[in-house]
Write a structure and sequence with these properties.
By secondary structure, the chain is mainly beta. Helix content is 11%, strand content 51%. It has one domain (36-441): Porin. The protein has an 18-stranded antiparallel barrel. Strands 12-13 form a two-stranded antiparallel ribbon. The radius of gyration is 30 Å and the shape is globular.
Length: 442
């Protein structure tokens, strides 16, 4: 009996081993690695914009014969966005195709002064360009690099970011479909912790945008930026140091602090010795505009300070003050107007309108209100903005309205109006201008 029982036990063990053998063998086999492939994303937008405006009455622009601003414009745009990612790498392409029809009604100037170009009552222009095209890599959790045409901005303010020497987008220009042209940058981001970030940027090559007389030459720039934040990422301070081939270094800083829930205060500023500001000059050789010597010892600063309050219902209020040392005073503007009247060339007109400062004056107050999520299916957004000159009390008022029409169409419309005396800081250019845009997402 014992012998039989022993045989039975051995037999059961053998059967168990034989049954378990395949699973044991299977456990030792290496799992096949999943093949990593590229992931692709794409979307397309088609935009149509109609603009209508009235040119302001100015001594420097009689009957619009010098600025030659269009009173009616029709713009068609095609905006693809293509992305490809593989592991820790990404390729992004944002090509653009545009077609612009500008209409003016300007009498020819006869006789025309030297250097004057007679206006065309209609200009048709098509353009194809690459707005952004870059390669990004993230080799580690703390390091990222981005190479190519790209857009990189910072700062807590809505009106401007003086500490950013590369991008000068201003608050009143930022309608819903406003798009910043990318620049040829080499950028590296290093974040040793969640609260500290160091950024190194070099503007290594020109983006190909046609340059006007106020900024005719491309010069390479470089900067280092450090940002320190608290654990909530709500309160932060940034320091910026930059230099270019054009002149002396520039230093900047910005900060954002939450005083109470929904209420924040902030600043953004820059300082440098000297300026690239264009100024009117009357000399023995004649009347013209010249750029300041960037090597002067005078410290020039541009400073913005403001506060923001966002309610529980997402109503967004801002009030910001801005001051720039090197911008034209009222006396300098009067002299510039005289120079332009005596030498009315298109190059001088471009310099007069964009002399190198953020705004056409030194002191401004800016306020805005944004009212989102109301109206039909909470799809309406209303934005109100006001830029006020503290020098001559002229103003730019803007109202914009956006809404979705179905799942794939967005409609945006708005109007900007100049208020105040003629020939003022904010009453040059257009007296008023309105636009309407439809955008289809394909």
């Amino acid at each position: 009996m014992r012998k039989r029982s022993m045989i039975g036990i051995v037999s059961l063990i053998a059967i168990g081993l034989s049954l378990s053998a395949p699973s044991a063998m299977g456990a030792t086999k290496k799992k096949k690695k999943k093949k990593t492939t590229w992931d692709y994303e794409q979307n397309y937008k088609v935009l149509g914009t109609y603009q209508q405006g009235e040119v302001a009455k100015e001594l420097t622009n009689p009957k619009n014969q010098l600025y030659q601003l269009p009173t009616t414009s029709i713009l068609a745009e095609f905006r693809p966005e293509l992305q490809a990612s593989y592991k820790k790498y990404k390729l992004v392409f944002r090509p653009r195709a545009t077609y612009l029809d500008d209409v003016r009604n300007i009498d020819k100037l006869n006789p025309a002064p030297p250097g004057y170009i007679q206006p065309k009552n209609q200009t048709l222009k098509g353009d194809v360009y690459m707005n952004e095209a870059y390669f990004a890599g993230t080799p580690t959790g703390t390091l990222q690099y981005v190479l190519g045409l790209q857009n990189f901005q910072w700062g807590p303010a809505e009106l401007a970011s003086p500490s950013n020497p590369l991008f000068r987008d201003l608050g009143l220009s930022k309608t819903y479909f406003f798009e910043t042209r990318g620049r040829g940058l080499v950028r590296a981001n290093y974040s040793p912790s969640g609260q500290t970030t160091f950024i190194f940027i070099s503007e290594a090559f020109d983006n190909g945008v046609k340059r006007d007389a106020s900024d005719p030459i491309f010069r390479r720039k470089g900067l280092i930026k450090a940002e320190f934040a608290d654990s909530s990422q709500t309160n932060y301070v940034g320091l910026v140091a930059s230099a270019s081939e054009a002149g002396t270094p520039q230093f900047g800083s910005y900060s954002h602090y939450e005083v109470l829930t929904g209420l924040t205060i902030y600043y953004d500023m820059s300082a440098r010795k000297g300026s690239k500001q264009w100024n009117p000059v009357i000399s023995a050789t004649g009347l013209n505009f010249q750029q300041n010597d960037v090597s002067t010892n005078k410290l020039e600063a541009a400073t913005l300070a403001g506060f923001r309050y966002v309610t529980e219902g997402n109503l967004d209020f801002r009030l910001e003050g801005f001051y720039e040392d090197s911008a034209w005073s009222e006396k300098t503007r009067n002299l510039a107007r005289f120079v332009l009247s005596k030498a009315p060339t298109l190059d001088n007109a471009q310099i007069y309108l964009t002399p190198g400062s953020f705004f056409p004056g030194q002191k401004f107050l800016y306020g805005s209100v944004r009212i989102p999520d109301w109206g039909y299916k909470n799809s309406f957004t209303l934005s109100l903005r006001n830029l006020h000159s503290l020098t001559d009390n002229t103003e730019k008022l803007q109202a914009a309205f956006d809404t979705f029409i179905g799942d794939h169409v967005l409609f945006s419309t708005g109007v900007t109006a100049a208020v105040g005396k003629e020939n003022g800081e904010l009453t040059q250019g257009y007296a008023w201008q309105a636009f309407a845009t439809f955008a289809w997402t394909l």
